[in-house]
Write a structure and sequence with these properties.
With about 90 residues, the chain is mainly α. The chain has two helices and no strands.
């Protein structure tokens, strides 16, 4: 049985290199699966920037729609309340 001092130490540089290459290949495969052209990195970056801008625009539109819906509901409720008060006072 080998003693602890006689055991072979792992080559950390080799392990890091292999892990970096595996991670790089995994990321490229994932991007290719999503439809990105990983051979042209600047175009890929522009695509991602466009997606980010589109997402932000959609979020703004959604927020504005919610605000408009809430405002319409509040104004409608206040109008109904006003009409009810006018009917009660007018009697």
């Amino acid at each position: 049985m080998a003693r602890a001092s006689e055991r072979r130490k792992p080559d950390l540089h080799l392990i890091r290199t292999a892990a970096n290459e595996a991670g790089r290949q995994g990321a490229l495969t994932c991007l290719e699966t999503l439809g990105f052209d990983v051979q042209h990195i600047p175009e890929c970056q522009l695509d991602v920037a466009h997606l980010r801008a589109s997402r932000k625009v959609c979020q703004n539109v959604k927020r504005q729609a919610i605000n408009t819906g809430v405002a319409t509901g509040v104004v409608g409720a206040l109008g109904a309340l006003w009409i009810g008060i006018k009917l009660l006072v007018g009697r």
